[in-house]
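Colleagues,

For the teaching module next term, I've prepared a clean inverse folding example: a structure given as tokens, and then the sequence designed for it. I'd like students to try predicting residues themselves before seeing the answer, so please don't circulate the second half yet.
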């Protein structure tokens, strides 16, 4: 399972990269706005910076703002030309699916976002999306079960032999990451805090303190 960090915060991206376990980055317009990045050139420049921080071979999702097919295609081509790491992120709409199919023909990688059902997952895979982003946290927020959706899509994609990678998004906790791994997600994209939360266990801290204390006693 690949680990992506879901942020436009450069410090978080640097920290995740330095951990040595990062495979990519996803962003969205809300995350860009959260960092105060606005205007066409500053946004493009920010994507370039992210690509440079993570280095070669790590996919960076950059989302289109257009909602019509022509606009998405024009914007997506511009984003794809920015850097070899860029994956064009496209919303799950009629025009979005059409744009994904076009990008697939051009060999441009895509991430189909705002996915909330198995039916949408089938459409994105048919269009040849590289990644599919089901938003599990937002499903949980409505008292439905986001992990169940991941399991359903894994089952369908396996049966149908679809190539699209399931990128579990809207992850809120370390537990979500573990559940996604068990469900068979190909990728998780998470806030840095969810990734670092995986480190902690009180018995590890207690055990390490005892090892060090015993070592000190034996060597004093
Ligand atoms: O990758 C999608 C993600 O950014 C949405 O997360 O927490 O706003 O539902 P959230």
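(Answer key — instructors only)
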């Amino acid at each position: 399972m690949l680990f992506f960090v879901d942020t436009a915060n450069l410090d978080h991206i640097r920290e995740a990269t330095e951990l040595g376990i990062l495979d990519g980055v996803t962003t969205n317009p809300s995350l860009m706005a959260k960092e105060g990045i606005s205007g066409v050139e500053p946004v493009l420049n920010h994507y370039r910076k992210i690509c440079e921080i993570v280095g070669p071979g790590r996919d960076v999702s950059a989302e289109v703002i257009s909602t019509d097919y022509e606009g998405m295609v024009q914007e997506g081509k511009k984003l794809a030309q920015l850097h070899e790491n860029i994956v064009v992120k496209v919303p799950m709409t009629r025009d979005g699916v059409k744009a994904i199919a076009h990008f697939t023909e051009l060999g441009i990688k895509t991430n189909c976002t705002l996915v909330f059902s198995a039916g949408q997952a089938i459409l994105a895979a048919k269009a040849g999306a590289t990644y599919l982003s089901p938003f599990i946290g937002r499903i949980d927020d409505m008292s439905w079960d986001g992990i169940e959706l991941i399991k359903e899509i894994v089952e369908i994609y396996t049966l149908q032999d679809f190539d699209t990678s399931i990128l579990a998004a809207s992850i809120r906790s370390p537990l979500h990451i573990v559940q996604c791994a068990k469900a068979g997600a190909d990728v998780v994209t998470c806030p840095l805090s969810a990734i670092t939360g995986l480190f902690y266990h009180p018995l590890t801290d207690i055990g390490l303190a005892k090892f060090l204390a015993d070592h000190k006693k034996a060597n004093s």
